[in-house]
């Protein structure tokens, strides 16, 4: 039976919705724009430079924001059987006037973006070599993933399964929804090398957007490429690559999945990650070339940790005003990490790691590598004003607490307080910077 596009009329929305800040900035140091949030949202603190209107509570006009943090979960949430959404039209906080559309076939996606304000993608099975491109969404549109989203097996390193761009948009998952990258069909233990595999499973470049309640399963390699976002919030995001820990028939005894970064964050401003969970085999969250980014209340397992990538092999890279707080990192190599390439240029400044709990660390709990990749130590990237506060937990006996490999004069004003890490039976490494006492 040929699938059809089902349209429903949306009830009208008051004019004030379009006139107020929706998932946009409402406060912060230097902010001179609107400080009033639309009814049903409140101005919520992200960091000192950025607060954002998010769903919950009555409208507020205050510029002073507070936040309540909770300890990151240490167990994975239970998944449920995938279900489809109902076809009844609804109005969301981010939605404007226009129809709500239930999409059940890949061929309908392009038309839906042109005509719909609320789009439910239900059990979409994209054909081989066919990306789901949500790059023509109307401003303030809402996209809901329902059921299981899949792609035909496409062994092509240039293939990007899902791309999302837009302004003021909301992207969320229905209960039990799964976005399935099909990783087991590609994994060979070699990650970006070996057999061709799709690159980043999801590419995201948005302004004043909200991503929430999304479950990503088994990316072939990197999961989310968050590149070029402004004023965007990611909350309640789950990336599950646990299946990749086991070897398969072609991984030569190694973990089948490799290079499965959770969030690759680059060229972003005023962006928030809250309550994200990542089970993977590479960086949990890695941030580069960005300003005013906060990662909070999050859980990482099996990864390379919470990383700053502060200077590539070419050009000048500036990464500043980044905060990691209230996070748990388990079964990892380097939970707290700043890495810069040999010969790189740029600045890593005003970085805070606060209230981080680590365990099962295999290399070093607190790591600075200005010789990333095993290359020569260089000082082209200034690492300055780095705060480590209340870092607790344990490392394996063969792992270090500190591995601070700095270029000559390029690590400045590193502050350590409340560091309580046990288990190490080996000496720390501190090059061109004194080890904390």
UniProtKB/TrEMBL annotation:
CBM1 domain span: 18-54
The keyword Signal belongs to this UniProt entry's keyword annotation: yes
Keyword RNA-binding set for record: no
Gene Ontology terms describing biological process: cell wall organization; pectin catabolic process
Gene Ontology CC terms: extracellular region
Location in the cell: Secreted
InterPro entries: CBD (IPR000254), CBD_sf (IPR035971), Glyco_hydro_28 (IPR000743), Glycosyl_hydrlase_28 (IPR050434), PbH1 (IPR006626), Pectin_lyas_fold (IPR012334), Pectin_lyase_fold/virulence (IPR011050)
Enzyme Commission designation: 3.2.1.15
Catalytic activity: (1,4-alpha-D-galacturonosyl)n+m + H2O = (1,4-alpha-D-galacturonosyl)n + (1,4-alpha-D-galacturonosyl)m
Protein name listed in UniProt: endo-polygalacturonase
Organism: Orbilia ellipsospora
Organism phylogeny: Eukaryota, Fungi, Dikarya, Ascomycota, Pezizomycotina
